[in-house]
Write a structure and sequence with these properties.
Blueprint lengths: L8 H8 L3 H14 L5 H12 L4 E3 L5 E4 L4 E4 L10 E3 L3 E2 L6 E8 L4 E5 L25 E5 L3 E4 L2 E4 L12 E7 L4 E6 L7 E4 L9 E7 L7 E9 L1
Antiparallel strand pairs: 1-4, 2-3, 3-15, 4-14, 5-14, 6-11, 6-15, 7-8, 7-14, 8-9, 9-10, 11-12, 12-13
Helix pairs in contact: 1-3, 2-3
Amino acid sequence: VLSPIPANMATVSKAKLCDQTTKDLIFGYLKATHTQLPQIVKYLSMAYYNTAEYFKNYRRDCFKVSNNGTVITNIKSISYTRNQIFGHQRIPSISNKVYTWRLKMKAQYCFFGITSEPESEQNTKTAFGAHINSFPHSHPYYLIHSMGRTYHKGVSQRKKCTKTLFVSIDTLDLILDPSQGKLSCIINGNKKKEFIAFDNIITGENINYTLTIMMPAVRGDAISLENFNVK
């Protein structure tokens, strides 16, 4: 069943920008299952596929994913300084939309946030959240530690946040509002205690952000991506 995506030329134009591998995958599946479909339906199917979010890049020797890439589980004890997980979506920093990831946590003391590293430069084996000054990066990134500390390009600071805000996390909404330059989070659905981690996100035409997470070295810990919403 197709998602109710408006059948307009902007949607089709965006779908046509998909990489060739994605086009081959979607068109090949549609050809195998539906012999005759209008071209517009094919592109709308591609647009729907391309708005999905999942855990895309991670250490295969340390994690496994399930449920179409939306659940990631630690299968090997490893320091969080030696792993990094990346999402699929590339969020334009010049945007009037608000992007929200809802994460269900079965892990404590995580780093989570966004990075503008191109996919070709994403390193799943070297985290830049821990020992932050040892890992200079040329691309903007913004991280929140589950104890309330924030990190951005070598600068660590304690925000106005008590540690108890991040104790017993069940669900976490990570919210990116590029037009306001804001990255914030809501713990366990308590909107009255929204934690604004950053209000000066760097933006630019060539800057796109990706979800990034670092998990602790506890086998069996897991994070579920329950929802990705764009408003």
